[in-house]
Amino acid sequence: MDDDDEFFDTISVASGASRRRFDNKDYLSLSRNTVYQSAVDLENMELTRLDHSENGNSQNKVSRNRDVKTYKQWRDRRWRYFTNGELCVDFVLAYDKEGKPEDVAKREHFEANLQHVGLILEKEESQRIHFVKIHVPREVLCQYAEILKLRLPIRYDENLGEIENVFYSTLNKILDCLRVRLDPKIFPPKKYRLTAEFNREKNYLFDVDDPDFFNEAVRITVASYILEREKFGIEDQEKGVHRLISEGIYKAAYPLHDGDLHEKNSKRVKLLKHWAQVSKCVKYQPLDEVKEYFGIKFALYFAWLGFYTHMLIPASLVGILCLVYAATTLPQDTLCKDLCNSDIIMCPRCDKVCDYWKLSEGCLYAKIQHFVDNPATIFFAVFMSFWSILYLELWKRYSAGITHRWGLTGFDLKAEPPRPEYLIRLADAKKRKLNVITNLNEPAVSFWKVKLPSIILSFTLALLWVFIAVFVVFGVVIYRMSLITSEVLYEDKITYRIYILPITAAIINLVCILILNIFYQRLAVWLTEMELQRTQTEYDDSLALKIYMFQFVNYYSSIFYIAFLKGQFVGYPAKYNRIFGFRQEECNPGGCLMELTIQLAIIMIGKQAINAVAEMVVPLLTKMYNSVKVSMGIQEAPPDQIGIISCNQWTEDYKLLDLQSQSLFSEYLEMVLQYGFVTIFVTAFPLAPLFALINNILEMRLDAKKFIKYFRRPVPQRVTNIGVWFPIMGILGRISVVSNAFIIAFSSHFIPKLVYMMEVNPDHTEDGFLDSTLAYFDTADFEDGTAPENPSMNVSICRYAEYRNPPNVTNGIKYKRPLIYWHILAARLAFVVAYQNLVTFVVTAVEWTIPDIPRKLNDQIKREAYKTNETIIKYETERARLKHRKRKNRDSVLSGETVYYDANGGFHTSDLANTSRGDHIENS
Question: Which residues form a coiled coil (predicted)?
């Protein structure tokens, strides 16, 4: 009786029904959920029958429970094991059976090499897609664990405490009071164990006989390494499963999830229910469990995202306090009171069709702007400048602790192989170059003839598209300038021009940004491919540089325009500076800071909301589409995922999306762009850290849910840091210092107020400040054809927001810059220099006083190295002593002496000349 027959007979016995036999093909045509649910129903039927049957004694119940247990064991074995139910599946290859003869030859050669190195393979056929199940035996694990220099736990029983930095330890104590620790019953705390690089010659250090010594992450890592190293052709470069996938010989290569989404005891379901849920957002992340399941690269991303989110909490609180301060000081704000009670007549906002207007009409706008332009904003800008540097320094300390806990101290990448796409494109290249590290002849391209021109062309096109993004911003500006004179806005011009126009322009800009992102992503990939980057690291760095350059200009250019350029070169009513015949945009009398806030809020919040929806909807729709194709066997050209009708984990995972090595790229990019919003322009939007905090709480859990439900399990990768993103954030921190200094100096009223109180007002108060910022203009001096055609009021003098001489000036030229303007400009530049130098000094002091590795952690690393050496010396001494005993015993036997061992392990000899040699050997 085979396994399938035994399985269905077991179900029949458990259900109390008549014995019936199922054909294996009929069983395979059922879905996994159907089989599982049928078994559950049968179990419930049997339990009901036993409860109501007169013969339902304890013996029947025991028999029934035994049969059900047998079924469950068979089901779990069938789901993730070989046919014999003994060997687990560590990796899976999928291919289309309708391949070309040369592809079949390469595949067979590749699989033969895999078996030659010791892997165990088993094939399973389906309608169209065939699978190769791979198991890594323990001997192969030992061999390649040594080659990969994996750090594995050694036999050392002393409990070495884990070192955390002071900030995180304090934060943990506070959060413990809020009961946010993980449930120890669900995620038992793991004891920190001493690790060392695995060495077969020192296997006495490791508990190799433990069945769980090589966990799933190690097995997957070894299998993936072998798959990338084995050849499928004659040439040295014809190797690696990823190149076979690129050529279409294999459809996919992936490790398995440890169960579907219905198995309660699997790690996948445990992480899904107790980590990847928004309702668990107040709980700690089980980073050790994430590391075991997804690998260090993914765990480090979630660790960084969690740390960044925690650091946003104090920034959010300070931002909220700034708004509370603004709300409490609003009734006493002199500028708002003067503006709301003013009867000043302002000059028209546009030529001919615009009328004069009263300054008091912008009262509400001035009150709203007070929330982002007040003394607390200055404090918040300084605070965020220090916060950005402190965050980076504390992250370096925290990451040093977790990477040490995960056994990555001293880890470094060695001899990275060429990219499969690189080898394919250079398959016919005649030029070869010896790689001194791998000692292989690799195809090479001429730097001067091929590589340099491609790099120049790549970055030239990249700069061209950067200018296209700038032109899009320019187009939005023209749109805003043209709408100022639109007849549609006449009736309620103040409401439209102050609120509706900035909001609609920001929404249009956001739509343009999202459209350009699609082109930028494809353009960046195409340009990077054209550069012929040899390794995946070089490729990823070049791609990251281009995409971030695109995104930086795309998202920030409009904000930089409003912050630093809008309203700075407008001119005055007698001589406006024009673009395509349109007057440039002017800031309101209260300044452009409020409009900057509107632009920043719409782009930042809109981007985060759209990305959050897209990240969940797109994988879900893709998975549904793949499932439909798989279940219905739809054949398309080219066929990618068709004709699979089976019931096991490898077919279920084949329906999922492939988790590429660059899958985290978009996640890091989104967060780093958000970090730019939070730091560079936080002066204009004090609530930016709060919205970032809310987004990240959702992002962290939704990302986890997405990776668990809709993607295949990734191959664990060892990394020691978050890569190129850390230096990018460091650069953003430096830019934020300069940006906030210029925003405070040129976009707010802080410096003009300060100069007015010190030089102009003898009482050193703000009284009269608003009037000093408005210049006078004689309506008789309008340019021809620019004066209002149908003015509603008779005005001879109007006012405009500028520092210029009045028309009736006695000592000077009318409408020219007065001396106070130059004093304010000098004060603004002096403030920028002083602010930047002060922050730079403090930042340098912080970087110098806070070491990258905590002192206690550094001491622990040295202590562990010492303990490891002591353990090795201890075992080596015992082995040497044992060998010496055996050798001495053998020599003594041959020389006629007997050996006596004392309690301390020492030995003594005595002459056995009178003892027969046969008796001596027998006694020995």
Answer: none
